[in-house]
Amino acid sequence: MLSVTHSACIPGWPQLPATRCAWIQPEQQLFQRLQTPAQPPRALRNFHSRYRNKSSSFGSCFYAIVNIVSEFWYTSALFALGTIIGSFLNVVILRQGIEEKSRQLPGTLRGRSRCPSCGNTLSPVELIPLVSYLLQRGRCRTCSIRISPQYPLVELTCGLLAVALLAPLLVGGGGESIWPGLMYPHTSLLRGEKVALALLDFIAACVLIILFVVDLKTFILPDKFLWPLAAVTISHAAIRMINYELGVAMPLWGAALGGGFLLFLYLVTRGRGIGFGDVKLLVPLGFRFGPLGTATLLFLSFIAGGAYGSALLAARRATMKTAIPFGPFLIGAALLLMQLPELPRQLLHVLGWPL
Known about the structure:
This protein folds into 3 domains: 1-36, no CATH class; 48-190, no CATH class; 191-355, no CATH class. It has 11 helices and 2 strands; from the N terminus they run αααααββαααααα. The chain has helices at 26-35, 42-52, 57-102, 131-135, 150-166, 192-218, 223-242, 249-269, 276-314, 327-339, 343-351, and strands at residues 176-177, 188-189. The radius of gyration is 28 Å and the shape is globular.
């Protein structure tokens, strides 16, 4: 079925100037309507065009203030969401330790939050991330025992990671604007794969935080957290391969390089120098970062671990036989590479090794 927009489109009729005909199928018309972005209300469009394009100092200052306020709002919301997730991670970490010690808690997420010392059920005010720690001055309201600094540190770290990994999706990102011509043109929705990659990185970062604290306390990297990490990192690599951003062999080479090297050290030292949990941890991280990123991760973690051990020896707080978990250094280097993906190439450039 064809539609006629003007009589000049009919053969035999006189052709008039400034006329056009649209011989468009109904399906094409519907497709064009779906592709047309939704427009904001006319009042907002007029308001935005009035002050955005105005050359006066008032218009420029007003628009700059709007940008700053909106970016601060999005960043604050992401930070608050990250601290809430960090509070949840603290619960998982605490109950993981209880399970390992007593085996009396069958479920990791079962029951309400309690003080680990007196067992008192925490009130809603005591569950507010960061704020409750400051209001209580780092002590329990019931038994006045000092609260471990692990809780605010995990919440703060998770909040900062949420801002670092997810804020580019809302603030200053590329792509098509959510509402073209609105007061906040810098706010944009990226393509689906960019959003998926950022969310997968944040999920992986949350799992790595749990592994960091658990390994630091118990010298164990539980398999029930390593398997979800492997699923997330493999999904991350698969999305990049589907979008032709990554070759099929690169994640495999990264996993083989990292896992193979630590497995060699594990066999040579017979488990005294490197634990097998570190081997299992570096395999999914190798999928995420590839061979170059994995080599950089190993380099940074060995440097940091060596510096930490040397500092303990210099302070006479450890001996050559003191066991130090290596997983936290691997995890710290991995979180750093998530924030600085160009760091491996920059290190090679500094060392004078061109790619």
